[in-house]
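Thread: quick sanity check before group meeting

JM: Hey all, I'm pulling together slides for Thursday and realized we never actually wrote out the predicted structure for the chain we discussed last week. Dropping the sequence here so it's in one place. If anyone has concerns about the input, flag it before I start.
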Amino acid sequence: MAQSLQYLVPKHTSGERLDRFLAGVNPDLSRSQLKRLIDQGHVQVDNAPVKASQKLKEGQTVTLFVPSPIPSQLVPEPDISFDIIYQDQDVIVVNKPAGLVVHPAAGHRTGTLVQGLLAVCPDLTGIGGEARPGIVHRLDKDTSGIMMVAKTDRAHQSLVNQFTDGRITKFYVALCRGWPKMDQGEIDAPIGRHPVRRKEMSTRSNSGRSALTRFTVLRRFGQRISLLRVNILTGRTHQIRVHLASIGCPILGDRVYGVGLGWLKKGGGPLKGLVKRQMLHAQSISFLHPVTGHEMTFKTDVPEDMSRVLESLEKDEIN
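JM (edit): ok, ran it. Output follows.
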């Protein structure tokens, strides 16, 4: 339903930018959402259209028109398989299988997690006239594990803010080709577009953004394979894959940043034929419920394909 909200500019905010003022009085909307509404002409100051950068004066009236969401053009697909770990009226937590793309993009217009979610949660809402499927964070196609999705605008904004403020904790398990020098470590290296291979990310980018990853070695196997527990404190694209590769421990089966599958085809010992994707699994996530404020933690076991690899490595150690 469309809304019309009015705010009187007080003395203490005189001189403040319009978008910053609106973010302060309406915390349920992000700065990017508010800027889009301003650019689309849905915000007026004293009944006149304005720009996001306009400085406000005491006594002015700011009117914000929030249009109704446009119905999603995405078609629900009930045959998409994923496990629902938890669900209430505000959030849904799922266990995404490897091989499933999170949202539609070039080359993957259908068959994504979003279409599957719409089949079980048809009331996923949007804001600012643009339908949103509730996605707060993403996992790569070949990464398995826990994801949370917002079912309302309020929940979406709360969870986005928690990510921005570093209040959400995510742990992964990763099988790597290599042994880290230390049993515990921290990788603090900016990540941006690769200077040459533009589809890839790199720690050697000229425009990298800060990225921080912490890891603990859980097990060192033969053939210099290690099992790591990984905690990311930022959310850069391909962060774990890029950071682990940068210290000489690429994720097993990673065709982009690692040794890929070539060495397994040539030999690979006990793992020959078992590794068919990158061995990375989002094992747990902790966040504050967007409405109740209660801390929530969800965990999931490693999937069957990763479990078979671990079992094979264990047997090889015994033999």
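AS: nice. The chain has a mean pLDDT of 87. The chain is about 20% helix and 25% strand.
JM: adding both to the slides.
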